[in-house]
Amino acid sequence: MPGLTPRFLIIAVLFVTCLIVSNITAVKLIDVMGYIIPGAIVIFPISYIIGDVLTEVYGFAKARTVIWLGFGANLFAVATFLLVGALPAAGFWEGGDAYDAILGATPRILAASFAAYLIGEFANSYILARLKVAMAGRHLWVRTIGSSVVGQTLDSSVFITIAFYGVFPTKVLVSLVATQIVFKLGYEILATPITYAVVNWLKKSEGVDHFDRATVFNPFAITKNSD
């Protein structure tokens, strides 16, 4: 299968790693200049940057495969956390409450996380792929930032709404969504020079610069796509 080179596999592993680490660290709320945001903000935006690289270089179909790999890996991790949490603890072990607090996410939080991830990542990849064709491969920064505006907005909005609707007032929910979007997009903008360097290096070293002119954009499609 074209594209499954060592470089592609390394990027895919980095994407999945960022996703799983983000979901674990999201449980800690941190204070940044008075703004309360999940600890995942440190790593999670990198998954969108990697998603941009995958779509820009290898195309939507390859990015779709990695997105589903990330979903499967995260589902496996969550299932393992819940299974281990349900097993009886040793009588002398005193870390049960801490384990449940960090790794024992509620079904509502899990549903919010999975839905937000799929909607946000696929929207990001789809828009970037479409813009690349429309712009004939020019203005990479417009595509990466533009697609992330939509993807990150959907991700944050879906997660906050599903996870906390009815728990916090609407004004608080809107504030949480807006704060996350600003921080995530700021991250993306600052990382733009790195994104350019990685994309250009990969295109040159891999000899690949895919345009999704004849791609099936169905997230559930398993057909082989080509120009």
Structure description:
- With 227 residues, the chain is mainly α.
- It has one domain (6-206).
- The protein has 8 helices and 2 strands.
- The protein has helices at 6-25, 44-58, 60-86, 96-103, 107-134, 140-164, 170-190, 192-206, and strands at 29-32, 35-38.
- It has a two-stranded antiparallel ribbon.
- A hairpin with a 2-residue loop joins strand 1 and strand 2 (35-38).
- Helix 2 (44-58) packs antiparallel against helix 3 and helix 2 runs parallel beside helix 8.
Highlighted features:
227 residues, mainly alpha, two-stranded antiparallel ribbon, 8 helices, 2 strands
Short description:
With 227 residues, this protein is mainly alpha-helical. 70% of the residues lie in helices and 4% in strands. The chain has one domain (6-206).
Largest sheet: 2 strands, antiparallel
Order of helical and strand elements: HEEHHHHHHH
Oligomer: single chain
The whole-angstrom Rg is 19 Å
Helix content: over 70%
Mean pLDDT: 90
Q: Trace the largest sheet across and list its strands.
A: 1-2
Tally of structural domains: 1
| Backbone structural class | mainly alpha
Number of strand segments = 2
Sheet-strand content, in percent, reads under 5%
Termini separation (Å)?
15 Å
Set down the secondary structure blueprint:
Blueprint: H1 6-25, E1 29-32, E2 35-38, H2 44-58, H3 60-86, H4 96-103, H5 107-134, H6 140-164, H7 170-190, H8 192-206
Antiparallel strand pairs: 1-2
